[in-house]
Amino acid sequence: YDWAQVPGNIRDGSTPLCSTDHWVRWREDTDLLTGLGLQIYRMSVEWSRIEPRPGEFDTEALERYREEIAALQAGGVQVLVSLHHFSQPSWFQGLGEWTIPQSVPIWLRFVREVVTALGDLVTDWVTINEPNVYAAQSHLWQEGPPGDRSPGKVRAVMAHMAEAHCRAYLLIHELQADARVGFAHHMRAFDPKNSRNPLHRAAVPLSSALFQDVIAEAMLTGRFRRLLGRQPAGITPGRFHDYLGLNYYARTASAGLSDGTFPGVPVNDLGWEIYPEGLVRCIRWLRERSAAPVWITENGTADNGDPATGLLERFRCRFLNDHLSLLADPTLGVERYYHWCFVDNWEWQEGEMPRFGLVHNDYETQTRTIKPSGRFLARIIAEGGISDAAREEFVAPQRYRIG
Question: Can you give the CATH number for the domain in which 256 is found?
Answer without folding.
Answer: 3.20.20.80
